[in-house]
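dumping this here before i forget
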Amino acid sequence: MATLPTQASGGTDLPPDLQLELRTFEAVGRDISLYDLLGVTPDAEGGTIRRAYLDRSRRYHPDAWFRKNVGEFGPLLSRAFQKLSAAYQVLSDEDARTAYDQVLKKRLSHREREAMERRALSREEQERRQRESRERLLRTKGFARIGAAHKLYEEALELALNGERAQAIAALKAARELDPRRGEIAQKLTELEREAARSRSQLALKAGREQEEKGDLPAALKTYSQSFQMDPTNAAAAAAAARCAAAVGDHQQASTFAARAVEIAPDDVDTRFLLASAFATLGLKVKARAELTRVLQAKTDHKEARALLKRV
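structure:
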């Protein structure tokens, strides 16, 4: 178990309490939960998490100490801010937070688990009330529908800000039904739906990596494929699917996924070489040579590409 620091260092412009906080951040490493990083409890609501993040990130942001003598604490400030940002990215996204909570429950005390369960029940009750409120507003008639749509739109913005994206999407759908001509409603709805798809895609990508690490390549291939379907801009998912497809001998599928990956990330030399290898295995020599040439233009010392080019 990490030993926490008890003494601050002189010679910098950082106050002693901040020095100790930074050393603590560094000492605890991965032993601290994302909630503890932000200084909130596992049952914290989205607004509480957001305020905690803003407060701590302002304190640790390297720009806050620009032109100050931070000495040895410069890298610690940067790493602390990165950890806070990563924690907020997970806890402010309801899909990612739910997945994280399922893993975290095993480490929580009985009291903390009860608090998390109370939050879940509270959210269910809140969602029920919001659903009933939307249903009442949808029954609005005449010009009042425009006002009801505006109310739902403002509510959706607040929900999205607090990480309640599913509820925000539901509110925007109701607002759109009330006022289908209001462009900002449709625009915000599209934005949040894309964010939701990207979040689900990232969670699937993580699950696929875990399956691949365990050696279950067919399952990983399926999960990576689902990740890419959720978010067609996820080059990492497409590249991973191509890698697994090649490993299980499905070179046609490997070429399809690799081609999509290099469309999104053309500078990914490894995936482009994988595409060339798939083309070569499929007997598509002209395409293979074209891709190998691109690989060697980007990385002239790519030995595998040069060797394969001689064979095709």
